[in-house]
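Worked example 3 (structure in, sequence out).
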């Protein structure tokens, strides 16, 4: 079976996820019988909210809130966003693009472009602005729920 057919057959598994599974060597292209069986089980698991909720509990609350609010962000983007979103329990500090770039280089061993840091910084600023709509409210409510679950 080809990946295009698999994406339509094994919903909610996306084409992007299937391509990543092939890239990581978890499944082969074209899909073998065992790959199709594995995807059918994975499809049943991801279609049930209970399983998804249980698997998401393994992540730290702050990471889980960011993953739900920004599903397309990777580890580095979530780190950048966290740096620009103030936490009421931490003292406020000034975060510069140059300093953040240095931290990413030191901790993740990646030269992350400044324009991408500025893009994520702008998303954080937009969330903090009072005039923004549903995305900001959703993110703030997710963060509030996660903070409540820590207590």
């Amino acid at each position: 079976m080809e990946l295009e057919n698999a994406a339509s057959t094994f919903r909610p598994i996306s084409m992007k996820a299937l391509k990543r599974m092939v890239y990581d060597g978890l499944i082969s292209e074209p899909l073998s019988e065992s790959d199709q069986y594995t995807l059918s089980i994975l499809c049943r698991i991801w279609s049930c909210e209970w399983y998804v909720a249980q698997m998401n509990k393994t992540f730290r609350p702050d990471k889980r809130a960011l993953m739900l609010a920004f599903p397309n962000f990777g580890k580095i983007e979530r780190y950048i966003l966290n740096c620009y979103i103030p936490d009421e329990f931490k003292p406020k500090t000034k975060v510069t693009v140059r300093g953040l770039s240095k931290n990413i280089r030191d901790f993740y061993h990646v030269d992350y472009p400044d324009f991408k840091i500025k893009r994520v910084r702008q998303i954080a600023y937009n969330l903090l602005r009072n005039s923004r709509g549903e995305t900001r409210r959703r993110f703030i409510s997710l963060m509030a729920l996660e903070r409540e679950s820590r207590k």
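Notes: The CA atoms of residues 97 and 117 lie 7 Å apart. The chain is about 70% helix and 0% strand.
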